[in-house]
Amino acid sequence: MELLPLLTVFLLVHAVAILAWTAAARRRQSRCYLLDYVCHKPSGERKVSTEIAGNVIERNKRLGLPDYRFLLRVIVRSGIGEETYCPRNILEHREDSPTHQDALDEMDAFFDEAIAELFAKSGFGPQDVDVLVFNVSMLSPAPSLASRIVRRYGMRKDVAAYNLTGMGCSAGLISLDLARKALRTRPRALALVVSSESIAPNWYSGTDKSMMLANCLFRCGGSAVLITNDPALRGRAKMELRCLVRANIAANDDAHACALQREDAEGRVGISLSKALPKAAVRAFAVNLRTLAPSILPVAELARFAARLISKRLFPRMHASKKTDGAPKINFKTGVDHFCLHPGGTAVIEAVKQNLGLDDDDVEPARMTLHRWGNTSASSLWYVLSYMEAKGKLKQGDRVLMLTFGSGFKCNSCVWEVTGDMADKGAWADCIDAYPPESLANPYMDKFGWINDVDGDTLVI
After folding, report:
1. pLDDT at position 325, please?
2. Do you find a cis peptide bond into 409, omega within 30 degrees of 0?
């Protein structure tokens, strides 16, 4: 009779041990380590100087004087310098008549340089890749560009290749999330995540102001990233992914339409950025933070915020008498050391700075990235991270918040913890010592500063 209870206890202990082992195995398998990454630096002859930018605008004979003034005003206020890059067809005065080959050539130049550099730096090769995720918002040829990479590098026949389009500037973290989840079904595997944007065939040559803005902001670039779930490679990794949060408010009509590819009144296709975009960004941002904050902030900070919020609601007159400025804010610096923000435009950076309670040092990497590279869409976050690394800002144990926005409307975020050595200057190697300059000179202001303000019916970038 005593044997039965003993056997029952043994079976329970055995079951608990199996469950604990399974849970631990799942946690190990869901881990995600950043092995290395490369940001694409196009060739020097593709740089867009002040003169070139002005000439491109002047070549469009459909524009009247108000349109010229509007575009030049946007460039002056953009925060973009003279070192950004554009496709060859624009430099060859063919922005109105791009070919399909122009689009493929733009992608191939990136594939041949950045991906090859990543394999050379990391010591891994195309045959080591188990999962490939490629994203580009504005180009969807057949075969897909993911297949083009597989063919170009002779990857294995069993490589799991994914191709994402139409996901906007936030596609970089969407691709990372997809790769991370794909790795869960493949123990000790390697994933290549590639992000770019197609500029060559997507120049807007019409006169709709909401559709002209993209021409002023977006520039050529791209990133190639290697991640793994293999614990044996943790010692070689630069960072470990702690959490990733995605928010999509596309069910709201205004949010869905605020960044939209459409035809103008004359049938010309472009990306329309409406005045509803900032409001949509704030809404998506708030939804994302509600999930992100409890995952990364210490309990003491969450309790402090909750106490202040409850006090403000229970005793509004007391807080009014103290003249506190608005609702209480969470101090994200209690859980994050560095902020890797999407450099979508000067106004975007300033809005995030204000909402997160950041200072100039916190947003310096995003501002400098916008100045040096422009908005390279989904790959932009990696240029910001590369700036931090080139400046020697990232130390072991530091936590880095990546935050990006994109059409849909979406707000995606993730937190990395630095686990290895991060001292590579990457694409910034030849210019990092010049950043940040004592005075961030605006060459467009010097040349086009005479432009008078136009009427206030436009979206401020």
Report:
1. 52
2. yes
Instruction: Record the tokens describing residue 7, joined without a space.
Output: 């056997």
Q: Is residue 330 part of a domain?
A: yes
Which one of 207, 238, 269 terminates a domain? Answer: 238
Q: How far is Cα 195 from Cα 167, in angstroms, rounded to an integer?
A: 11
Output the pLDDT for position 261. 94
Instruction: Give the bridge partners for 366, in sequence order.
Output: none
71 close to 64: Cβ distance less than 8 angstroms = no
- Domain of residue 295, CATH code: 3.40.47.10
- Range of 145's domain? 31-238
Cα-based torsion angle of the residue sequence 161, 166, 172, 178 in order, rounded to the nearest 10 degrees: -40
- Residues 324, 263, single domain; the answer is yes
Residue 92 within any structural domain of the chain: yes
How many domains does one find in the chain? Answer: 2
The per-residue pLDDT for range 79-138, each reduced to its tens digit, is 888 899 999 999 999 999 999 999 999 999 999 999 999 999 999 999 999 999 999 999
Q: Are residues 174 and 289 in the same domain?
A: no
- Tens digit of pLDDT for each residue in 162-206? 999 999 999 999 999 999 999 999 999 999 999 999 999 999 988
pLDDT tens profile 377-402: 999 999 999 999 999 999 999 999 99
Whose tokens are 């472009």? That residue is 270
Domain boundary among 204, 238, 272: 238
Task: Record the pTM.
Answer: 0.89
CB 169 within 8 A of CB 377: yes
Q: Are residues 57 and 75 in the same domain?
A: yes
419 and 237 in contact (C-beta within 8 Å)? yes
Over residues 261-285, the mean pLDDT reads 91
Burial 252-277 (b: 16+ CB within 10 A, else e): eeebbbbbebeeeeeebebbbbeebb
> What pLDDT sits at residue 75?
79
Q: Does 199 share its domain with 325?
A: no
How many whole angstroms separate alpha carbon 346 and alpha carbon 461? 6
The answer to whether residue 117 is domain-embedded is: yes
d(CA 118, CA 382): 13
